[in-house]
Design a protein that fits this description.
Number of helices: 4
Structural class: alpha+beta
Number of strands: 7
């Protein structure tokens, strides 16, 4: 039997204010890149908890998710590691809450508020090929209610 395919599950936050989107600039193995506040789903948390945590860690802003913009799959080839990874990304939209006085996550250089056109013009610096796609889907009004996502209590307990 062959290995079971296991994509990496990630979450991302689309945070828009006055026509600008909150992005992060981060140090990666491929150099400095731009991304939405995003990261991996951790054990024992729901997708919504993950996106709230990641947004806070990477931007020092509280994040209140209001809808799911979309689910995206992409493949990434790391030149520095010589490996391929498939990502399954759940992108949420919502509101930025309070900005807290805390350091940004390791590797995050700064936060930036950018227009859609500025994001498009910086495509060569995007961490993922779907950064702009997520913004465009948000601007097109793509929204799915959060109640579509269900997390069984066994996730929080660490097993059934």
């Amino acid at each position: 039997m062959t290995d079971i395919f296991k994509p990496s599950v990630t979450v991302a936050a689309i945070i828009e204010r006055d026509g600008r989107f909150l992005l992060i600039e981060e140090e990666t193995s491929e150099g400095v890149k731009l991304n939405q506040p995003a990261g991996h789903l951790d054990p024992y948390e729901s997708l919504e908890q993950a996106v709230v945590r990641e947004a806070l860690e990477e931007t020092a802003h509280e994040f209140i998710p209001t809808a799911l913009v979309g689910m995206y799959m992409s493949r990434y080839h790391s030149k520095s590691r010589g490996t391929e990874v498939t990502y399954l990304r759940f992108t949420f939209c919502g509101h930025a809450g309070r900005e807290l006085d805390q350091p940004l996550d390791e590797g995050i250089l700064r936060t930036m508020w950018m227009t859609r056109d500025e994001i498009a013009a910086s495509a060569s610096r995007h961490r993922s090929p779907i950064v702009l796609q997520c913004v465009d889907d948000y601007l097109a009004g793509h929204r799915t209610p959060l109640h579509l996502l269900y997390t069984h209590p066994s996730v929080f307990e660490g097993g059934i």
